[in-house]
Design brief:
The chain is α+β, with helices and mostly antiparallel strands. The protein has 5 helices and 12 strands. The radius of gyration is 41 Å and the shape is elongated. Keywords: Cell shape, Cell wall biogenesis/degradation, Glycosyltransferase, Hydrolase, Peptidoglycan synthesis, Transferase.
């Protein structure tokens, strides 16, 4: 009995092995008999839709890779996670504490980009430290030398076109008083309260001269031509009803700090 118990399991394994010997359960060696058979059985299979000749299908042309990106072209421009306004501009035109006043931030997204402060290539024979006002393009340049200049956008009033030529910034003033000229008082009687005889308008955020004023002289005489700040940021790059050369308050503060004493100015 014990003998049979030992023999039957072994006999079962032999029978199973014999039955499986007729089944092809092993991976055949396709290269064993013929290289042609190997190529046939291992060649890739591609999808070919009916009625389509692969030899007549035109390849898709390569698309040109863009070389530049206008990240801040408009406030609606997609910038792939970057802010829609230039953070440098946001810093330059943010809220600024100056003397006893706090200049409010300027919504730079609503100002045309070319009129925002920026260093540009500028070829000129003028000496570094000279101010050049281009009344046609409405730009003011502070010449830095080496073919560079700091460019600011300006607004021009009626008086801004009244004088051109070469002069000297005889003096400059922080938070100036505004005293409208007699001609303006006669045209606009509502400003009579700020006339010379009445002491002018006190410095402040609503003062038409803004945070700084620069007074232009020629041959020792006042030209009545002024470069000044303005609280009306929307007038930059435009023609206005009054005033000379208007700058954003943050820009006029920047220019004031750059100007050397008795700087030359050219208005064209």
């Amino acid at each position: 009995m014990n003998f049979l118990r030992r023999v039957f399991p072994i006999a079962g394994l032999v029978i199973v092995a014999a039955s499986l010997s007729g089944c092809n359960i092993l991976i055949p060696d396709v290269a064993a008999d013929s290289p042609a058979r190997f190529v046939q059985e291992t060649s890739p299979v591609f999808y070919q839709p009916p009625g389509v000749d692969p030899g007549r299908v035109r390849p898709i042309p390569d698309q040109p890779v863009p070389q530049t990106r206008e990240l801040y072209k408009t406030q609606f421009h997609q910038t792939y996670g970057l802010p829609v306004t230039n953070p440098v501009h946001a810093a330059m035109y943010g809220e600024l504490r100056d003397e006893d006043f706090t200049l409010p931030s300027i919504p730079v997204s609503r100002v045309q980009p070319q009129f925002l402060r920026q260093e540009v290539d500028y070829q000129t024979t003028e000496r570094p430290g000279t101010v050049v006002v281009d009344t046609k393009a409405r730009f003011l340049y502070f010449v830095e030398g080496n073919g560079k200049a700091m460019r600011y956008g300006v607004g021009l009033g009626r008086d801004g076109y009244a004088w051109s030529g070469r002069g000297v910034i005889q003096w400059k003033q922080k938070w100036p008083r505004w005293t409208p000229p007699v001609e303006m008082v006669s045209r606009q009687p509502e400003v009579r309260a700020f006339s010379v005889e009445n002491g002018g308008m006190n410095p402040g955020l609503q003062n038409p001269l803004g945070a700084r004023a620069m007074y232009i002289f020629k041959d020792g005489q006042d030209t009545l031509y002024r470069i000044h700040g303005t609280p009306d940021w929307q007038s930059i790059g435009k023609a206005t009803s009054s005033g000379c050369v208007r700058m954003l308050n943050q820009d006029v503060v920047d220019l004031y700090d750059r100007l050397p004493a008795k700087a030359e100015i050219v208005v064209m």
